[in-house]
Write a structure and sequence with these properties.
Number of strands of chain B: 9
Largest interface: A-B, 26 and 31 residues
Distance between the termini of chain B: 35 Å
Strand order of the largest sheet of chain B: 5-6-7-3-8-9
Radius of gyration of chain B: 23 Å
Number of strands of chain A: 11
Structural class of chain A: alpha+beta
Largest sheet of chain B: 6 strands, mixed
Strand content of chain B: 15-25%
Distance between the termini of chain A: 27 Å
Radius of gyration of chain A: 27 Å
Strand order of the largest sheet of chain A: 1-11-4-8
Shape of chain A: globular
Shape of chain B: globular
Helix content of chain A: 55-70%
CATH superfamily of the largest domain in chain B: P-loop containing nucleotide triphosphate hydrolases
CATH class of the largest domain in chain B: Alpha Beta
Oligomer: heterodimer
CATH architecture of the largest domain in chain B: 3-Layer(aba) Sandwich
Number of domains of chain A: 2
Order of helices and strands of chain B: EEEHEHEHHHEHEHEEHHH
Number of helices of chain B: 10
Order of helices and strands of chain A: HHHHHHEHHEEEEEEEEEEHHHHHH
Strand content of chain A: 5-15%
């Protein structure tokens, strides 16, 4: 019996959206926005820039529009029907309130599924058509296609084994007696490793750096490998830097490419995959050619080292995974809206729901408060000087930060916009955390409150 | 009393409902310790002016509101029990229907909520659409319906589950006299089949026509309760009806009564009700929706 009633409510929710022209208006707005936005945003006029605009802005636009409408309609899902008393007749029928709640939620998911499918198809067609119709050379088209219309896994360079060197240096420093008395050997070793890491990515004029990557065993060979890198300069002027990338360590089979890049601008080096066949460790050497420059380059900070992008799967499947994660987020938003909407009137529910979302979105601030451990008192104030109120709020922030992390971290848009793979693990996490756990907890609270509510 | 037996379908003892404000302070006592007993197969009427507590009582019976104190059972169980709701049909005062759905769609939707499916659902929806006279308008959205037509849909949805207990809030409101008569006939036939009906209405004539028992509420309290016959009867006066006699005979009868009782009786012609005149006139022509 339960599925019939739940499905009936879900179908009614979809039917209402269709008959009230909400679905049609949203579909038109979405398609118009998806097509119009890339025309309005100029970008850098390169094919690569155009594709990036399509992927970044349109996906962001679709996510924002769908999030707002989902939250809005979910807030009105119950409150509007309670207000105009249509719910009276439904509630007096033999169905549990959780069936009613679930039906509404499923109806909203069905609508969003349809709209996300429309978004996916539109974006996919637009990206392919933009490349197909471009007047750029075939090589440029291929490069852009390889870079964006492909799911790629990012590999970090292997960290050299510094353990022996660090141990010996530590021993030598301790024996020399040049260290502070209280300094532990572990701390010294940590500091040495940090120094070596910085040195590794610091390239003086005429100098170079080497990066090795371990190729995954299941990687396909029909597409190029891409080396993504970026560097910053110690000099304020942003003059271009000439350099040579050398791939491989055997002089007989080395491939060399001369490049000129600007500091702060991300760059991509394409390597034909066939030329690396049979090699498990891929080594890239960056050699600066500008010996008379004054600037020292920092190839990357420790969190963003050069990355080897290896083919992982098709763009279509990647887009589907990304859209599925967005659907999981919308599932949570629908649950949140319904929860608030079964307690408050529509405008108040909308206000409350958006307030919660703004709180979640401000997780950057929450994170800084939670990690720095400072609230209200100056940064330099010791923890013991903090009042119980500060301490309590701090704990609240820490809990809030932990709780909201999956909501903000599971974002596929930056990955899709840069051709990075939206992994199955991330998709599963979104399913378990957002559509599963978070929606279930929100639903549980909502259903409990709704069960207790009188409809008079 | 028509088909009533002693099995209690609704039992309320000291039923009280107090509404509270935002700070949970008592705001208004809508129903004050009322006692009601509605037996299986009877048509029971709840009467009273606006704000007397009729709707609040009905909402408590439907499980929409929770009693503040007292005891309330419907079909022997709590009114919030889903099994009880499966045996109840409710027609609200206003037609709280989804205006974007057609008559057939809305009946199908509610039938789904009753767990009906397949042929059983199709048959009952078809039967009810015909029964309430909406076959010609079945595909029109309810938003385009007149109030009377929407009331018919409301009545049809109330009968989808062949309920044991039917709760009707102003069932004849917005209906033309013919439809009103049809509804009353339908309710009487349902009562004859053993259905229990609780009606809440301001149409006293309608209530008098069909109710077995009534309770009159005022300020949340039951002021008067009993069978319609008992409430209406005046044991101190009698009405004597006979075919109009000759002037001489009538004078002799009146003189005799005056001589025996010391009172001069009133004499007038018995009249028809306006409803019966209207029905007789209008039914000569076919009515189209």
């Amino acid at each position: 019996m339960m599925p019939i009633r739940t499905i009936a409510i879900a179908c009614l929710t979809v039917r209402e959206a269709v008959r009230s022209k909400l679905l049609l208006s949203l579909a038109i707005l979405l398609v118009a926005g998806l097509i119009g936005l890339p025309l309005l945003i100029a970008g850098d006029n390169t094919l690569s820039g155009k594709i990036q605009v399509i992927l970044t802005y349109t996906l962001g636009f679709a996510t924002t529009i769908l999030s707002i409408t989902t939250l809005w309609t979910a807030c009105g899902g119950f409150s509007k029907e309670i207000q105009d008393r249509r719910l009276y007749l439904v509630i007096t029928k033999p169905l549990h309130r959780y069936e009613l709640w679930l039906g509404k939620w499923l109806g909203m998911l069905t609508m969003n599924l349809g709209l996300l499918a429309l978004t996916g198809i539109t974006i996919s067609v637009m990206a392919h058509q933009t490349i197909h119709r471009s007047t750029d050379s075939l090589m440029v088209k291929r490069q852009v296609s390889e870079q964006f219309l492909m799911a790629r896994q990012g590999l970090q360079p292997l960290t050299p084994d510094w353990s022996d060197f660090v141990k010996k240096t530590t021993q030598r420093l301790i024996e020399s007696g040049r260290l502070q008395e209280k300094m532990m050997p572990a701390v010294i070793q940590q500091k040495l490793i940090e120094e070596l890491s910085i040195k590794r990515f610091t390239i003086p004029p005429g100098g170079g750096a080497q990066f090795s990557f371990k190729r995954p065993e299941t990687q396909e060979n029909s597409h190029d490998l891409l080396l993504s890198y970026k560097f910053d300069s110690t000099r304020p002027e942003r003059s271009p830097v000439a350099a040579r990338w050398t791939m491989g360590t055997n002089p007989e089979h080395q491939i060399q490419v001369d490049v000129t890049n600007y500091p702060g601008v991300p760059a991509i080096l394409a390597v034909i995959n066939d030329e690396t066949a049979g090699t498990n460790i891929l080594t890239f050497t960056y050699q600066r050619l500008d010996t008379n420059s004054q600037a020292t380059l920092l190839m990357a900070d420790r969190t963003q080292a050069p990355e080897l992008l290896v083919p992982y799967g098709s763009f279509g499947m990647n887009l589907i995974r990304g859209l599925f994660i967005i659907l999981c987020r919308l599932a949570f938003l629908a649950a949140l809206g319904l929860m608030v909407g079964c307690l408050l009137s529509t405008p108040v529910a909308v206000f409350a729901a958006f307030f919660i979302i703004i709180l979640v979105a401000s997780s950057g601030y929450v994170e800084s408060v939670a990690t720095s451990g400072v609230f209200f008192v100056p940064h330099e104030g010791p923890a013991s000087e903090q009042t119980w109120l500060n301490q309590s709020i701090l704990h609240l922030f820490r809990v809030f930060h932990v709780v909201t992390q999956p909501l903000t971290k599971l974002d596929p848009v930056p990955l899709l916009a840069t051709g990075r793979v939206v992994s199955g693990q991330m998709t599963l996490q979104a399913l378990v955390w957002l559509a599963g756990l978070y929606s279930a907890i929100t639903a549980l609270i909502g259903i409990t409150l709704f069960n207790r509510r009188e409809l008079g | 009393m028509m088909g009533a037996n002693n099995e209690l379908v609704i039992e309320a003892r000291s039923l009280t409902k107090v509404f509270h404000d935002f700070w949970h302070r008592p705001k208004i006592c809508a129903v004050k310790e009322i006692n009601l007993e509605v037996k299986r197969g009877e048509i029971f009427g709840l009467l009273g002016p606006n704000g007397s507590g009729k709707s609040t009582t009905i909402k408590m019976i439907l499980g929409l509101l929770h009693p503040t104190s007292g005891h309330l059972t419907v079909l022997g169980k709590s009114p919030r029990d889903v099994a009880v709701k499966a045996k109840i049909g409710f027609m609200p005062e206003e037609s709280y229907l989804y205006k974007y759905l057609t008559a057939a769609e809305i009946l199908n939707f509610y039938a789904n909520l009753y767990g009906l499916s397949g042929n059983a659902k199709r048959d009952i929806v078809e039967r009810l659409i015909n029964q309430v006279g909406l076959n010609a308008a079945r595909s029109r959205p309810i938003g385009e319906f007149s109030k009377g037509m929407a009331r018919r849909v409301g009545l049809a949805q109330c009968l989808l589950n062949d309920p044991d207990l039917i709760l009707l809030d102003e069932p004849t409101s917005g209906l033309d006299p013919i439809a009103c008569r049809e509804v009353k006939d339908l309710l009487l036939s349902l009562a004859r089949k053993g259905k229990t009906i609780l009606i809440c209405s301001h149409h006293l004539a309608d209530m008098q026509d069909i109710c077995d028992r009534v309770a009159i509420l005022l300020n949340g309290e039951v002021c008067s309760q009993g069978t319609v016959h008992d409430l209406l009867i005046n044991p101190d006066t009698l009405r004597l009806s006979l075919q109009s006699p000759s002037r001489e005979t009538l004078s002799a009868i009146l003189n005799y009564i005056e001589q025996e009782t010391g009172q001069r009786p009133q004499v007038d012609h018995t009249g028809r009700t306006l409803e019966s005149v209207y029905i007789e006139t209008v039914t000569r022509r076919p009515v189209s929706l």
